[in-house]
Recover the amino acids of this structure.
């Protein structure tokens, strides 16, 4: 059965967060800086909106969080769980499939498929 | 430039049905994130006001955040997700808590309550002794 396309654009922040947290644990501010760095600032988010995404990922079991005192401030560090790794693999596959489809569409001359 | 009203964000999240633990922690994280942004702008040489303007711009519209969080069912409190269960559990919990609250308060203030009880007992003994003395005085007069 053909899979329907996931809401790929709305899933991009989630994919990036999971990918970055697969490397090491990070807190919100650090994650936003990393998103900017790894995407060459191609993807810039209103930085606050990262938190609903992080909390939602934590609630569905993809992330763990822990509080850590750093320089007199308490930071909430997020790390990936086994379930998060599975989710990351699934999202990455979906993203590659969508990207491949879009690439094909961009290569085909307009009107050729009609 | 005023600091964003993070307390209002927490209130808005709660009124949208977000779990209290999530709303509180999100507020703390936003405050921390904002402080980091201001600190980074100050390190680049901005004045306090200018640093706040930069931080506000980077943090983005907090209404969007509230709207985003409100649209995620997994962030809702259990009472919002299962209202019928909540309307059953809450009254029962309150009835059970009614006797528990004074007991818990008593345990928390045990030394003061023991002192008070000791004073009352001493007072009662003194009063009883005076009445007994009066009674004997009447009997043997």
């Amino acid at each position: 059965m053909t899979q329907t396309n996931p809401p790929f654009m709305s899933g991009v922040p989630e994919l990036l967060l999971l990918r970055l947290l697969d490397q090491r644990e990070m807190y919100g501010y650090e994650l936003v800086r990393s998103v900017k760095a790894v995407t060459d600032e191609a993807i810039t988010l209103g930085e606050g909106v990262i938190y609903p995404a992080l909390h939602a990922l934590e609630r569905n079991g993809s992330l763990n969080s822990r509080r850590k005192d750093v320089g007199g401030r308490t930071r909430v560090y997020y790390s990936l769980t086994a379930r998060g790794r599975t989710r990351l693999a699934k999202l990455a596959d979906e993203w590659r499939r969508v990207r491949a489809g879009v690439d094909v569409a961009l290569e085909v001359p307009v009107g050729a498929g009609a | 430039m005023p600091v964003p009203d993070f307390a209002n964000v927490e209130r808005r999240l709660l009124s949208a049905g977000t779990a209290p633990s999530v709303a509180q922690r999100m507020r703390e994280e936003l405050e921390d994130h904002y402080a980091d942004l201001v600190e980074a702008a100050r390190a680049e040489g901005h004045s306090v006001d200018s640093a706040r303007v930069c931080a506000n711009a980077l943090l983005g519209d907090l209404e969007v955040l509230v709207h985003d969080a409100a649209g995620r069912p997994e962030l809702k409190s259990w009472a919002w997700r299962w209202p019928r269960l909540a309307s059953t559990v809450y009254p029962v919990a309150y009835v059970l808590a009614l006797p528990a609250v004074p007991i818990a308060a008593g345990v928390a203030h045990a030394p003061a309550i023991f002192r008070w009880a000791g004073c009352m007992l001493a007072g009662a003994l003194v009063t009883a002794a005076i009445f007994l003395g009066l009674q004997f005085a009447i009997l043997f007069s």
Q: What stands out?
A: Chain A has one domain: 10-106. Chain A touches chain B at residues 27-29, 32, 45-49, 51-53, 55-56, 59-60, 73-76 (CB under 8 Å). The first strand of chain A starts at residue 26 and ends at 27. Chain A has a mean pLDDT of 85.
